[in-house]
Amino acid sequence: MNNKKKIIIVGAGPGGLTAGMILASRGFDVHIFEKNPNVGGRNSSINIDGFTFDVGPTFLMMKFILDEVFELAKRRSENYLELIKLDPMYRLFFKDKSFDMTDNQEKMREIIAKEFPGNEEGYDRLIKNERRRFKKMYPCLKKPYLTINSMWNKDLMLAYPFLSLGKSMYDVLSKYFTSEELKTGFTFQSKYLGMSPWSCPAAFMIIPYVEHDFGIYHVKGGLSKISEAMAKVFVEHGGKIELSTEVEQLINKKKKMVGVKLKDGREIFADEIIVNSDFGYSMKKLVDQKLLKKWKEEKLEKKSFSCSTYMIYFGLDKKYNLPHHSIFFSDDYESYIKGVSNHEDPVEDISFYIRNASINDNTIAPEGKSNIYVLVPVSNKKSNYDWSKNKKKFRDIIVNKMKERAGMEDIENHIVMEKIVTPDDWQNEYNVFLGATFNLGHDIFQMLYFRPHNKFEELENCYLVGGGTHPGSGLPTIYESGRITADLISKKYKK
Q: Which residue in 173, 203, 228, 401 is a FRET match for 18, CA 20 to 30 A apart?
């Protein structure tokens, strides 16, 4: 007789896969239900006509966390993935100049001395000070915050002086650099959280720091290969994945989650439920609203959410001599980003990101061709902008900017495949609440204890993983959410 404790995971995103492979390796009977035909969620792939695109994340930071979660599942990441460290990490394009960013700190200092003389000493201070901040804060991100008293743990108490409460990332950078371009170059990473550097808490200065101290990586075949590797490890440990199988509702018995009802009519029961689907969507669609207080729909909509993104995935019959990652800043970056954060309609003076991974990876496009991934931050669905009406208009604005600023004047002669994803698509096709690609905002009152808990506070036998719970958005922190949840369940059953 099988007496293993049974775990159901809703969604095969990176958080669910992390928790799944750790729990399966510890002897739990784990079953993942995924509505899509492939694993990964926002960390999955789009495959069209021989072109492979990552749906979402394209930067892998803090590789050591990925290595650690594989080790917890009794595996080594290098046996499943080919990782390429990028140098330069990316190139930044401003109106009058462009320059590379590298994790080679001696080289980075030389670039700053050449392009922004007098600011190199600020770079030295940034690395020194932000390394201290990271060392104090990182242990705090690995803990669950299930009660208000957990906010007084020793690690967090030691970290409090380093949180720079009341200050933004931009405030901190103003103490390091006089150049506006440098300030932007070390704060645009707030967009990884879907926030503005003028409002993103200063504590998130650890993000640009970890880039410059640990570097960033590409995964051959795309970052979606991480999800595929995790799924492989999960199955090796006896885990079961059902793809193209949508969960319609969580089954409860007196606020205790006991199973899931699938769209095909089946009801599957388990000892614990882990929710990896988008948090806002899950609360709105999967949970009986009568069971919720703090996170019911009308209260959820009043919370702060990240921006959305407008995406274009191009398959080209040409290769361009662009860096692997390029970020092009609008002439008035502050106004642009604040407009996005304030749910304003799109403007023509856009900032945009291009990934040209084909220069380092010959597996993601047919021979002699390339794929180009374009991302533009835009307002989430709290804006009333009509994307169905303006989808092509905005696409043309982006393409014209690519011609003008990225040296891609002839791009329209070389497009052989094209796919667009708007905030409407994030909401309707990917089940992302408000189309907020980076989930709940990361202001100080939506972090740690104040963020939805890994052991969900409103429902028994229910756990959360992903960007909508602690520690937050971004692949490394989502992996941490999976690890935290796996450890909480393991501790409960003394595994």
A: 203
- The tokens of 125 are what? 């201070």
472, 489, 491: which is closest to 481 by C-alpha? 472
Q: What is the block-wise mean pLDDT of the chain (495 residues), using blocks of 10 residues?
A: 86 98 98 97 96 96 97 98 97 95 96 95 95 94 94 90 88 92 91 86 92 96 98 98 97 93 97 97 94 92 93 97 96 93 93 97 96 97 94 97 96 97 96 95 91 96 97 95 98 93
**Rounded distance between C-alpha atoms, residue 448 and residue 423, angstroms:** 27
Q: Which of 111, 57, 393 is closest to 219 using CA atoms?
A: 57
Dist CA 155 CA 457 (whole Å): 23
Q: How far apart are CA 402 and CA 366, in angstroms?
A: 23
C-beta atoms surrounding 299 within 10 Å: 12
The position carrying tokens 């390796």 is 25
Domains defined along the chain, listed by start: 6-83+221-302+440-492 (3.50.50.60), 87-214 (no CATH), 307-428 (no CATH)
Q: Is the CB of residue 180 less than 8 Å from the CB of residue 54?
A: no
How large is the angle between the packed helices 475-492 and 63-72, nearest 10 degrees? 30
What is the Cβ-side half-sphere exposure of residue 177, based on CA atoms within 13 angstroms? 23
Structure tokens given for 157: 């108490």
Contact yes or no for 187/173 (Cβ under 8 A): yes
Q: Pairing mode, if any, of strands 6-10 and 29-33?
A: parallel
Secondary structure, 3-state, 161-183: HHCCCCCEHHHHHCCCCCCHHHH
Write out the two tokens for 38: 């492939």
- How remote is the C-alpha of 106 from its chain's centroid? 29
Which two tokens mark 287? Answer: 């949970």
Phi-psi region of 397 (alpha: psi -120 to 50; beta: other; left: phi over 0): alpha
Paired with 45 in beta bridges are 54
- State the DSSP code for 381: T
